[in-house]
Amino acid sequence: MKYLDEFRDPYIAKKIVDEIHAVTTKDWVIMEICGGQTHSILKNGIDQLIPKSIELVHGPGCPVCVTPLEKIDKALAIASRDDVIFTSFGDMLRVPGSKKDLFMVKSEGGDVRFVYSPLDALQIAKDNPMKKVVFFAVGFETTAPLTAMAAWQAKVQGIDNFSLLVSHVLVPPAMIALLNSPNNRVNGYLAAGHVCTVMGLDEYYPLAAKFKLPIVATGFEPVDILEGILMVVRQLEEGRHEVENQYARVVNRDGNSSAIDIINKVFEISDQKWRGIGLIPESGMILRDEMAVYDAEKIFDVENLKVDEPKECISGIILQGLKKPHECNAFGKKCTPKNPLGATMVSSEGACAAYYAYNRQENLK
Predict the structure, then answer these.
(1) Exposed (0-12), middle (13-18) or buried (19+): which is 310, by Cβ within 10 Å?
(2) Which one of 19, 65, 221, 238 has the largest count of C-beta atoms within 10 Å of its C-beta?
(3) Over the stretch 180-214, which tens digit does the pLDDT of each residue have?
């Protein structure tokens, strides 16, 4: 495929792998933030090509996985109403809540539909004026502009039967939380290229300086990831801690100003609970007061719903890079893609799903 073939070229990949081996002299721990990068790493065997002295750990870069359990239960409560059409990206339909998931609500008669865009949900609202249409707005900074545009268009067009259940989260505050943890052992980061495409790189310079570690904005193809690893290792071996841009064909320092503008018109920053991790200050987005008429939590009076996380699922520890999926006693046994205990086994970007799909199941005999 044009513009992609060179980033999947095995000859180029081998040359980069050889260079990584040549420059690596010490043990290093590198975290890739994005779940899409995790899947690419495992699918292409990148973790098995690099030196054993480089450990890749998987960060909280799966928005489905970090959506708090209580937010799922709020979605279930709203979706079960007879007067609601509940819409969501497909990944969210199988994420388990306390007792069921959205697919089960659908099987029980709830009008639950998956859509490809919040603008699709807005069209459903226009086509069904007698129903209350809710979009489950989940994602990092990458999907927030589309959510914001849907809310803004609802306001401009006067569509009053449309609302949002918002669970948008921000990457840099999560990185800060992990770096401040006494358990942190990460030496360098592969930053999520799609997030950097929207938000730019400016947020990362203070992090690299404060925590004295390299951060490299990285794409998602095998050559992208290998080159990102090489750039991080070079910095570590040379004692540097800078922000670099491997994904220069897409990312620029300032990001996408139009996307940032619409986000700022609709959302403001708030503290946010992350599933399995807990409350991270200023790590989420909520609707501004002037947009509160589109807040499904207020409309359906579920703001105060609180739920405890299940203790059996260790997805929070996995999302912090402290354990690998196969180190969970339930992995591949009590927890499988058909019967998941947590979102990391369900999501197309979940680390547990990646380990299961690509046979990284060392504890299954």
Answers:
(1) middle
(2) 65
(3) 999 899 999 999 999 999 999 999 999 999 999 99
Q: Locate tokens 């018109």: which residue?
A: 265
Could you state, in order of their start, the residue ranges of all structural domains in the chain? 65-170+255-297
Separation of alpha carbons 265 and 267, rounded Å: 6
CA distances (Å), origin 237, targets 24, 133, 231: 7, 53, 10
- The residues, ordered by sequence, that sit 6+ positions from 277 with a Cβ below 8 Å of its Cβ are 60, 66, 174, 177, 316, 319, 320
Q: Are 154 and 125 in contact (CB under 8 A)?
A: yes
Please give the helix or strand (H or E) that residue 138 lies within, else none: strand 132-139
Q: Which CATH architecture has domain 65-170+255-297?
A: 3-Layer(aba) Sandwich (3.40)
Triad 309, 315, 316: Cα angle to 5°: 70
Which is nearest to 134 in space by CA: 142, 124, 146, 148? 124
